[in-house]
Amino acid sequence: MSFSFSIPTDLPTGTLKLTVNTGQMLFVLGANGTGKSTLMQLFASASSDKTRRITAHRQTWFRSGSPEFTGRQRAEYEQGLFHYDRQVDARWKDDYSEQRAQMAIYDLINSENVRAREITRAVDAKKVDEVDKLSAKDGAFLTLNRLLRLANLDIIVSVQANDEIMASRSGSKLYSIARLSDGERNAILIAANVLTVPAGTLLLIDEPERHLHRSIVSPLLSLLLKERPDCAFIVSTHEPLLPVDNPGSKVLLTRACIYEGEGVKSYDIDLLESSTEIDDDLKQTILGERRKIVFVEGAEHSLDKPLYSLLFPNASIVAKASCREVENAVVGIKGATELHWVKPFGLVDNDTSEPERIADLKSKGVIALNVYSVESIYYHPEVQKLAGEKLATVVGGDLTEKLAKANIDAIKAIRDSAKHLSARIAEKSARAEVFSLLPKKGEVAAGGKRIAEIDFGKCAQDEAERIESLINTSDFVGVLQRYPIRESSALDAIAKALNFTNRTQYEAAVRNLLVRDLEAVNRVRTLLGVFPADLIA
């Protein structure tokens, strides 16, 4: 089965003839204002009643996980939607948003119930072959759960008593799907619509990426197409990598349109038979420029990620477990620029890295910070002053005295932990010296030998003397640049000296400051190091 359309264009021919067959996916790609929504409205108006529209302004919340109307009401809503989706104002508003969500829930449960009744009738009639045939095909919920898992969503949904759909995560207790996140509900709504439509349906999916990360929506769309080769798909999106992830798809590039009244008179549009032909001009129009991704050390829930997000608001922050993983991610993307419309950067903790190592990282696009770890910047004296000034306007007091006390108390705490801190860095220095003895490329083939003696005791003594010197001169900045101060009580001492209840309150105050004060953001970035202009812009 196929669906054919005529699109008015500024081409000499006047129209662009377009056909989408079942088993095919067509992406409508373009910047805001180029007519994508109007084009999807054209498809909805011109197609037959075998069309299911999944709108961009779809409602993703439910009052409950159970259907709230009967089968007859469901049929009436279907007729209402058929006529409504062909009206001009359906392009920008949806009077049936709640009903669409409930219809998807109803259809999912009804599909499961119909399958169960068919199997029951075959069992009652003792038609063993038919039972085997019916049961061999997965039900709606088994299929949905398989797709969710393959699309990187760790949830399982099932229908329970009173036809209520419940969810579970990692073996947790069941809870209503109404309590799922927006993204999880959005994925379920899209999948439920696709899985339950009749064969030969044209599915119009508007902006599936809403509320969903590309790592979820991209495999989900690919899987749904494979699951329903008996349907045709037209997907409108702002995400240029979605068609790239589906290399067999076609792409309509909408560059501009001319309106006449409430409709579009003509489109500046191109049809690409291969999704790999998406041009850089269109990508740049949609994204502004290369998408910036900053790979950083740390876990998703550490202090590092929210701080980086505030300091680099125009970039996506992706946490990696180690410096090596950050380095590999940046180098990997830079080596595949034809596949990734992104500009990668790497930021790693200094960790007392040697100058040679820092230079090597920089050559690969990875920047080592000026501090031992990024969270240390929360406690830099200049950041203490910025946060203290905000609190002083509320509670009063002499800020200069508080800052002086914070430094005294912090140095005292460092002195109490000096042996531990210096030993930690001495160990790192000794390991670095050992690793420096490993042969470089070509050295083994060239022959020769290397003999070295490393005095671990001297490493420890040198580091102990270094930290003692910093303590004696009250050089707290020197300490936080070289030592893991979080492994001492210095951070609590600073927070209390500045009249904060604890570290958590102080760190929240710093983040709150960075949200509101652009000058503070610029200053903190300067304290961390020198960054490429295109990262900051």
Task: Describe what this molecule looks like in 3D.
The structure is a single chain. This protein is of the alpha/beta class. The chain folds into two domains: 2-117 and 177-287, 3-Layer(aba) Sandwich (Rossmann fold); 291-440 and 453-536, no CATH class. It contains 22 helices and 15 strands. The chain has helices spanning 36-46, 71-84, 97-124, 128-136, 140-150, 182-196, 214-227, 241-245, 280-287, 304-311, 323-334, 355-363, 381-395, 399-416, 418-435, 443-446, 456-472, 476-482, 490-497, 503-516, 518-528, 533-536; strands at 2-8, 15-21, 25-30, 51-54, 156-159, 165-168, 175-176, 202-206, 232-237, 250-260, 263-272, 291-297, 316-320, 342-348, 366-368. Strands 4-8-9-3-10-11 form a six-stranded mixed beta sheet, sandwiched between helices. Helix 13 (381-395) crosses helix 14 (399-416) and helix 20 (503-516) packs across helix 21 (518-528). The longest helix is centred in the first third of the chain and has 28 residues, at 97-124. It is elongated, with a radius of gyration of 30 Å. Mean pLDDT is 83; it is low at 286-290.
Radius of gyration: 30 Å
End-to-end separation in angstroms reads 50 Å
Strand content: 15-25%
* Low-confidence blocks of residues: 286-290
Structure class: alpha/beta
Q: What composes the largest sheet?
A: 6 strands, mixed
What count of structural domains? 2
Number of helices: 22
**Coarse morphology:** elongated
Strand order of the largest sheet: 4-8-9-3-10-11
Share in helix:
40-55%
- What's the pLDDT, averaged over the residues? 83
Number of strands: 15
